[in-house]
Design brief:
Blueprint: H1 2-10, E1 17-27, E2 33-43, E3 48-56, E4 61-72, E5 75-84, E6 91-100, E7 103-111, E8 118-127, E9 132-139, E10 143-152, E11 157-166, E12 171-181
């Protein structure tokens, strides 16, 4: 797993667009959980891109590679396959992103081996200005709640927060994150 993630990071210069996302999740019933995500895309044609994603937490990690298809500038559909920590079976991912005006919707899903080995994230955002975006997020293992984002184009980064209620764990969580465009 670590070799695959290292390979993805080393290959960064050949990719046109990439982002690093670092967040810390706090639960009222547990410890701080850091999470590092790395996502990149490389256009193959006007509508097709190669994608890759890597995630590292304390006790788990994954790496996925895939393809996205963008028939228009406001719609993108992708699928991916990869590996996850502790499993010899593949992990699959899919996503849909769409936007109209200042409103965007992103749906991400993943499935690994086992009935409970799935993940999802849904973001519905409204861009209020070049700096502020507000919306709602439903994120497995994080919870459901409002999300606020502050973007600094000068620093190519976004600071965000998500106070959420996790219905599976029955507790409140607060997530603070930093996304850096590369």
């Amino acid at each position: 797993m670590k070799k695959i993630i290292a390979l993805l990071l080393i290959s960064l210069p050949i990719f046109v667009q990439a982002q690093l996302d670092i967040n810390v999740r706090y639960s009222v019933t547990g410890p701080l959980i850091p999470n590092i995500n790395y996502y990149g895309t490389k256009k193959i044609s006007e509508k097709i891109s190669l994608t890759y994603f890597g995630l590292i937490e304390r006790t788990w990690g994954e790496a996925l590679i895939g393809v996205s298809y963008s028939p228009t500038s406001s719609l993108s559909i992708s699928s991916s396959v990869g590996v996850e920590h502790g499993s010899k079976k593949p992990r699959f991912g899919a996503s849909v992103w769409t936007a109209k005006g200042n409103t965007s919707l992103l749906v991400l899903t993943e499935k690994g081996a086992g009935a409970d080995n799935y993940w999802y994230k849904v973001n519905l955002f409204q861009k209020v200005s070049d700096k502020f975006t507000f919306g709602a997020t439903a994120w497995r293992f994080y919870g459901v709640g409002p999300q606020a984002r502050f973007t600094s184009k000068k620093l190519s980064s976004t600071i965000w927060t998500l106070p959420a209620y996790d219905f599976e764990a029955n507790n409140l969580k607060v997530v603070i994150g930093l996304t850096i465009a590369m």
